[in-house]
Design a protein that fits this description.
Elements: H1 6-42, H2 46-64, H3 76-84, H4 89-116, H5 121-133, H6 146-156, H7 162-186, H8 192-216, H9 225-230, H10 236-253, H11 263-293, H12 308-323, E1 329-330, H13 332-353, H14 359-377, E2 380-381, H15 382-388
Parallel strand pairs: 1-2
Length: about 400
């Protein structure tokens, strides 16, 4: 055999492909890391950080020019602005009210304590104990932690002139909190982008799950329990992120001057999220049904070798349908193809099952059809959406 014969060529190609595989895996890993890094950067609250920084700077300037003893503590004004800052208008108002109430309550605890006791270790322990008991007061929300903190500030820093210190501390934080609320009112945030990303993630997970289910049903035998676990995608984390993003958008839209300009998009996103959530729940139910009824460990399966292929085709058509739109609307051609594929599955069930299968098997196949049909009924074709405009 010559050095350049078929054997050499085969070995050379095999060796080259073997050497290339790690490079391919490395490039895919680098691409995934780059994608994750970009996603994390996009999730950074840059807008909120800029608002907080601007409000803090303005509050510090106001505190510095404030007359009287309060001018000696200008840093308490930006503290109030930062504490009150939130990603939503109503959240900022709520933070401002709760934080100021917590600071004043802590200051009152310290003032009352210092009138009857000298500042000692026992006084500190008493103030901290009383303040900590107020931390979980429902009316103070998450700002209750400022009660013992404010009490310690007054007890230690304002020991010489507690009344003057409380006036400066409480007054400047109140002014700073008001500046923070004004900043979020003038430059409100309406996080439609993150909500859109969350819905896109849910749609992608649903598509992956449907295609994995279809792939599992394309074999010559039912998948084992282990194989089903390998083909399962966890939809709940993405669904929960979408729910949180939707709630944040709805919260941010309250008292938001930008709402009127984005009203149509806001309503569209709310409808889209609801549609995706219903589809996600139906797909999860369909997944559990297939895992329980169509696996190799069962004595009797719900589909069998003749119904697995048409079921797989119906799932692939459903995945293409979800992929064709935004979750709220879908492509007319994809909808027609999915309905036609589902009709073919129904015909196959009638042809195979009637007269020769148990009621349990007919129930399983019928449940699968019902779940797929409900998924098809959830989104509207694009043509219907345009007709409603």
């Amino acid at each position: 055999m010559t050095p350049y014969g078929p054997g050499y060529l085969s070995i050379h190609v095999h060796s080259s492909s073997t050497a290339v595989r790690p490079l391919i895996r490395m490039s895919m890993s680098l691409a995934e890391r780059s994608t994750h890094l970009s996603a994390r950067i996009r999730r950074l609250p840059v807008g909120l950080a800029l608002r907080a920084a601007g409000a803090g700077a303005v509050a510090f300037w106001v505190g510095a020019v404030f007359p009287g003893p309060a001018g000696e503590f200008p840093y308490y004004a930006p503290l109030g602005a930062v504490v009150a800052m939130s990603s939503t208008v109503m959240g900022s108002v709520r933070n401002a009210v709760q934080s100021i109430a917590s600071i004043w309550l802590g200051s009152a605890i310290a003032l009352v304590t210092t009138t009857v006791m000298a500042p000692t270790a026992w006084t500190v322990a008493l103030v901290i104990g009383l303040g900590t008991m107020a931390v979980n007061w429902r009316l103070l929300g998450g700002m209750g932690q400022w009660v013992p903190t404010a009490a310690l500030f007054v007890l230690i820093i304002g020991a010489k002139e507690p009344v003057a210190f409380v006036s400066a501390y409480g007054g400047l934080t109140l002014i700073g909190a008001a500046i923070g609320v004004v900043a979020i009112l003038l430059f409100p945030q309406l996080p439609l982008g993150p909500a859109e990303d969350a819905m896109r993630d849910v749609r992608a997970e649903v598509i992956v799950q449907l295609r994995q289910l279809a792939h599992a049903l394309q074999g010559d035998r039912p998948p084992t329990d282990t194989e089903w676990r390998e083909h399962r995608t966890r939809l709940e984390p993405a669904l929960q992120r979408m729910r949180e993003a939707r709630e944040l958008v709805l919260e941010a839209s309250r008292a938001n001057r930008r709402r009127a300009h984005h009203q149509r998009l806001l309503e569209s996103q709310v409808e889209q999220a609801g549609t995706l959530e219903r589809v996600c729940i139906l797909v999860e139910s369909l997944t559990q049904l297939l895992e329980e009824e169509e696996r190799a460990e069962n004595e009797h399966v719900g589909l069998g070798p003749q119904l697995r292929p048409p079921t797989a085709r119906a799932l692939l058509a459903l995945a293409d349908l979800v992929d064709s739109g935004d979750g709220r609307t879908v492509d007319i051609a994809a909808m027609a193809a999915a309905r036609e594929t589902l009709a073919g599955l129904v015909d196959e069930i009638h042809a195979v099952r009637v007269g020769e299968s148990s009621d349990d098997e007919l129930f399983t196949a019928g449940s699968i059809v019902t779940n797929i049909r409900r998924c098809l009924e959830t989104p509207r074709p694009v043509g219907e959406e345009e007709a409603l405009r």
